[in-house]
Amino acid sequence: MAKMPSRAKRTLRISPLAAIAAATAFALASCSGTAAPGGSVAVPTDAGAVTGELNILVSSAKGSDAGFKAVNDAFAAKFPNVKVNFTSVPNENYNQARTSRLTAGSIDVGLAGPKELPSYVPAANMGDDARLAEAGGFVDLTDQAFMKKFTPSVLEKIAYKGKNYTVPTGLSYYSGLTYNKKIFADNGLTPPTTWDEFVTLCEALKAKGITPISIGGKDTAGIVMLSVVQSLYPTAQAKQDLAKSLYENSARLDDGKQLEVLQKVEQIYTYAQPNFAGSNYSQMTSEFLTGKAAMISDGTWNVGSLREADQVDFGYFPLPASNNAADNAFLGGKVELTLAVPSNAKNKPAAMAWLGVFADNYKAFNEKAGFAPAQVGVEGDPFYTEIEKYTKNFEPAWDTIWIPNTKAGQAANLPFNWTALKPMGQSDAQAAAVAAQKDWEAGK
Fold it and tell me: Within 10 A of 223 (CB to CB), how many other CB atoms are there?
């Protein structure tokens, strides 16, 4: 269970700029591949002809690691002449591991997520994977037969300039709160649908001596911010408009609804356990499983681990930061780990064969991984049926839309300065917002 939080942290972390230099080296190295950079590669039909070693590098999490093992077992049965070298590394170390191995050409299947740059964002802010895609650094998977097994709307969301360079593994939602159904029932509580209802609920729990929300300060405190943004800017268009207005300097971070984001995060932090800034994901989850806390700020990626623990009957609802219930009706989320074949992969035939096996055995993978399914006709955990009223319209979370300005200061990275708020930092909402605006202006 302790491995899960890093995935949450990855949504809040900016890739190291050093990777850009490596990307250039990789793009040059990719030209030595057997196929044209960025071109398509055929999926082998003769299993006996697929040989050699297959190097797979992914970020680690208990559920997805188990799912990939199921795929690797199926692959070994179908392609016995291939030795699979599967490596999963902690998310905080993944960028560094991927950079060095891409440069060496020692990844056949890895993770990638090229993202198109909006017209209002300066070209200097293009992400590493977008640079690689532009340089022909990934094999084009668009027309592969196995891609047709995945949900078209999901493929559309991860396409880069109309092409699919990556394969989705599932969907995760993370703008909500996991809650203990028994604690709610025992105290006559129901999931709130407005901010005022939420505040009343938290105050009622505090009055009973129950910690309303357990937060892992080292891992999930930033998810609170993303949850508040989801309610105050509930649609993709609203978030895109916000991003555009910030880049065009027609909106500020220290007034209006932007300030309200930090004010509400600040208040939510008061409903967490004491000194939560030093708490990690395992400690947070333990408080929930032992009944010390009624809720946790978490993503749906933890469903499998909570099921395995089998200690709490749990549910999930959007954190309602608006007093308009309609603004709180949907969960913000993202497409989970997306798989790619680098153009300089040394064993492209095996890589393409493995992706085909992944597509064929997706159900077995996702039974272990616990994501919301990315294939039509594949049923996920019953939990996802319970929350489908919140997910019938897929709404991208703020961190999947926002493009950081590499010239701005640290306080404006996301750009809501949640790390400065007590007890994560030393500031109140107003001071944190002022610091964010100052750092944003520094990037003009």
Answer: 28
| Burial class of residue 199 in the structure, from the number of CB atoms within 10 Å of its CB (0-12 exposed, 13-18 middle, 19+ buried) | middle
- All structural domains of the chain, each given as residue ranges with its CATH number in brackets, are 5-172+335-391 (3.40.190.10), 179-330+404-441 (3.40.190.10)
pLDDT at 29: 39
Higher pLDDT, 343 or 62: 343
Residue 36 reports pLDDT greater than 90? no
Record the tokens describing residue 395, joined without a space.
Answer: 């709404």
CA-based angle 415:13:405, to the nearest 5? Answer: 45
Tell me the pTM: 0.85
User: Both tokens of residue 408?
Assistant: 């701005």
List pLDDT tens digits, range 127-137: 999 999 999 99
Instruction: Give, in degrees to the nearest 5, the angle at Cα 364 between 311 and 66.
Output: 60
CA 193 to centroid of chain Cα atoms: 24
The pairing of strands 293-298 and 176-180 is: antiparallel
CA 389 from chain center: how many Å? 21
Structure tokens at 437: 């605006």
Distance in angstroms (rounded) separating the CA atoms of residues 222 and 113 = 21
Average pLDDT, stretch 347-372? 96
pLDDT at 35 over 90: no
CB neighbour list of residue 215: distance below 8 Å, 6 or more residues apart: 221, 224, 269, 272, 273, 276, 279, 284, 296, 297
Contact 178, 224 (CB under 8 A): no
Cβ count near 209 (within 10 Å): 7
**Mean pLDDT for the chain overall:** 90
Tokens, residue 277: 């800034």
CA dist., res. 115 & res. 102, Å (int) = 19
